[in-house]
Amino acid sequence: MRAVEAQNYSAIMQTSTCFLITFLSCCILAAVGSCPKEFANLEESTIAHENIYTYSNVKPPNPTVGLLYPRESNTREVRSLDGIWNLLRSNASDPLQGIREKWYKQNIRATNHEITLMPVPASYNDVTVDQRLRDHVGTVWYERHFFVPSRWRKDRMRVWLRFGSIHYEAIVWINGQTTMRHSFGHLPFEVEISSYVNYGSENRITIMVDNRLNNRTIPQGQVVKQVNDNGFAYIQTYTFDFFNYAGIHRSVHLYTTPPTYISDVELKTQVSRNQIGRIDYRLWLGNAEVLNVKSTHVLVELLDKNGNVAAHQINRDIRNGTLLVPNVKPWWPYLMNPDPGYMYTLEFQLIAEGGTEAEPNNELLDAYRLPVGIRNLSWDKDGLFLNNKPLYLRGFGRHEDSDIRGKGLDNALLTRDFSLLRWVGANAYRTSHYPYSEESMQFADQHGIMIIDECASVNTDLFEPELLLNHMSYLEQLIHRDRNHASVIAWSIANEPRTKKKAAEAYFGALANYTRGIAQGRPLTAASNVDKPSECMMSQFLDIIGFNRYNAWYHNAGRTDMIVQPMYDEAKNWRDRYKKPVILFEYGGDTIEGYHTLPAFIWSEEYQTTLFSKHFRAFDRLRELKWFIGEFVWNFADFKTEQAFTRVGGNKKGVFTRNRQPKDAAHLLRKRYHALALKLDNASLPADLFDYIIDWN
Ligand code: GCB
After folding, report:
1. Which residue of the set 169, 301, 496, 570 is catalytic?
2. Alpha carbon distance 387, 470 (integer Å)
3. Cα of 463 to ligand 1 centre, how many Å?
């Protein structure tokens, strides 16, 4: 019954959405390029209720261009549009009401519907006390006003509007005109709005945000219609284990570029054995057609931490180049070197040459600077290596999650989290289960925290070709966004997809094949949760085998005597089957802070510490085998989930509370992580690691 209703609802939605899309596509085309690709001649056959596709007609997505993180320079200005916006919630049973009634054509206050003041960035769900907003399924509308100085037109500046991320689908209007549409959460998008804005006066930005998930979205979900006390309600169902927060989650920026500008930068770095650093760069230019290439050059300058020039170059090739850095200070992970996370600043200046040889009169067309860490990354069947040293990763699976803000970017929280990561001695985390903010990636670079960068494919189940296209596109946008970060050491293409299904094999074969082609020198990984490695239809396509396993929790709950041997055997089974490096991406157990039991009992603080300690024993036996390259606790902090009888106030597997205070297990983990750093990389231990007990001498 539920499934049938879900289909009906999605049919209605698809029909109305189709209408909307056709209407909008025409308006949007000019701003965002071509329409999404269609699948021609889908090859499909059905075996035992499971659709098996070959995906041979799924064409790879167009590469993303642009989206450099907005940074000021002597040719660019950046303004924040963060702050308090107006929010209008559409009726849950009528998500397209605002489109029909053209809410974007006027100030939304003029609609006479109830307006809520809403902070940006933040999830809208937990900010107010309104349950309808917390549990809303469908669209909401955001609106604010902003000024554009007339100077920007006088100086022939291009004006860009950039979003760090919106959950999920967003349509953006400026002064009532459609400018763009973007469908994925957790990723940035932007559009040039020079021709949409009024210079020297006020402008209006209106955004429709749709939080619904279906079989073709990343991640998947289903909207179902269910009878309730007032008739019926639409419910968003999903199988992933975190609250489906929505809204404008990251910062909104207005920024300018000159008419001819650097639109994109790609960097690849290496360190040679004789301490020479190498940066290979590629530049993309906007409006380059007008350039006289013969009299244009790029001035490239690399500044060290103190602002001194470490390398520089004048390059007549304005699209590609290589910069060599003598006596380079390589980027090292935290506790692998006394000066981890060393970041240079790389500046590109695009210069048009004028005047005469005797009296040159050069014009600076554009300048863009970005941080860069210089390091080598490599892997083979036995390990992952940074600057040719084998890596052992000790860290966490995490979430972007906090009280009130939900998934909204919060710099204070970010700072606290990195402070805790360093305190606990972690050197890595996985961005489970979606890309984290660009600001957090910058923090990771600076702190020397290595990142397994995961896309938002969680619990993927129905392997349709259109989903594959979206999945490829998602990974393409993620890799494009994060390729220049020294901290990124692997791409995770999925978490716990239903890989026992036959259909998963061709799907992940095609996905991995595509992703490997754009992987920018990083290995591919994913987190599998099948019991038997031989039944996983995905792992054969990966470079690093990742698995999640909850011994003494989901398996043999309460039995901390059933951890060491099973854990050892399971990791070995993965290794034996795939002959690749193996990493444990998740283990742990829910723990209520302040709940103590002796002897240890499930959900207590004692239970979590015992469970961890038993795992450490297994990990140490595995470490001796070399191919076991990391241990990640689930989770860094407690986080909110949907309402369920298995979750008391959310998922409590955090080592820290949701408010970022330590549980007992955090102190134990800290001892382990710092001890590993001492043992493996000769790091010094923090002075307060062990409390004084007695003078043993
Ligand atoms: C998992 C999932 C993660 C869940 C976790 C749990 O395997 O990958 O998203 O939160 O288990 O605690 O159940």
Report:
1. 496
2. 34
3. 21
